[in-house]
Amino acid sequence: MKITLLGTGTSQGVPVLGCDCEVCRSKDPRNNRLRTSVIIETETANVLIDCGPDFRQQLLRNPVPHIDAVLLTHDHQDHVAGLDELRAFIFNQNQPMPIYGEAEVLRNVRERFNYAFSVNPYPGAPRFALHTIQPGQLQIEGLPVHALRVYHGTLPILAFRLGNFAYATDVNRIPENSAQALKNLDVLVLDALHHTPHHSHFNLHEALAEIAKLKPKKTFLTHVSHRMGLHNEVEKQLPENVFLAFDGLRWQF
C-alpha cells in the first residue's frame, strides 16, 4: 500500500491570495500547500480521500492511471469542490465514480453536483454512484477501512484508519472510543492549523497534546496555515517524532 499526501494546506491554500507574509513569499516548496487530500494506492484499487478544488493540479503532480473510489471526510468546499474533475477517470473507466460518505454529506454532494445525477445528462457531465457509510469497519473496493467519528467544531465528520496508518484532518475533538482506535499507529496524519486557538481545528499545542495521548510512532501535521510559520523553523520546535507534512509526502506500507 502506498499513501501520498496530495495537499496539506488550509481551505485557502498557501500562499494565500493577496498575502505578503514570509511564508507566502517563501521559495521552499514545502511552504506551498494545496488543499488537503490523500490517495491510497494498492495492487487492486486506488482510493482518494477528499477531492478539493486543487485536485487536477494534484493529479498532474502525482499521476495515477485510475481512481476506483472516493472517501469523504465531510462536505466543506475545500474537500469536495474538485469532484467534477473526476470526469477524466469516469470517462476512461466507463462507469460512475463510487463516492462514500455519511448521509448528509452525500445529500449535499447530490445538491451541489445535481447535473451528475440528471436523468438525461449532458454528455460531458460526470456520473457518481453514492454509497452511505457510518463510523465502523468498511470494505472500500476490497480495502479494509475503519471510519472513526471525530468533530470539526460542532460538525461530526470522519477520520480513517487503514492498517497502521490513520488520517484525521479538520478535527478539534476526538471522542474516547475513536481515540482508542487511533492507538498503536506507525503513522498518524493529524490536523494542526496554527498556534492560536480555533473553533474547529486543533492548534499546534492541542495537536501535540493529542499526540502525547495517542502515542503513534510518527505524526505528520496537516491542514497547515501560513500562520503556522516557515516549515524549517517550525520543525525545529517539534518533538523528535512529530513533523510538518508537505505536499507530495509519501509512505509505503
Characterization of this structure:
With about 250 residues, the protein is α/β, with parallel strands linked by helices. It has a single domain, classed as Ribonuclease Z/Hydroxyacylglutathione hydrolase-like (Metallo-beta-lactamase, Chain A, 4-Layer Sandwich), CATH 3.60.15. The protein contains 8 helices and 14 strands. A 7-stranded mixed beta sheet has the order 6-5-4-3-2-1-14. A 7-stranded mixed beta sheet has the order 7-8-9-10-11-12-13. The protein starts with a strand and ends with a strand. The model has no long low-confidence stretch (mean pLDDT about 95).
Task: Give a brief outline of the structure.
With 253 residues, the chain is of the alpha/beta class.
Question: Layout of helices and strands, plus pairs?
Answer:
Blueprint: E1 2-7, H1 22-25, E2 37-41, E3 46-49, H2 55-61, E4 69-71, H3 77-80, H4 87-93, E5 97-101, H5 103-112, E6 128-132, E7 136-140, E8 143-152, E9 155-162, E10 165-168, H6 176-181, E11 187-191, H7 204-214, E12 218-222, H8 231-235, E13 242-244, E14 250-252
Parallel strand pairs: 3-4, 4-5, 5-6, 10-11, 11-12, 12-13
Antiparallel strand pairs: 1-2, 1-14, 2-3, 7-8, 8-9, 9-10
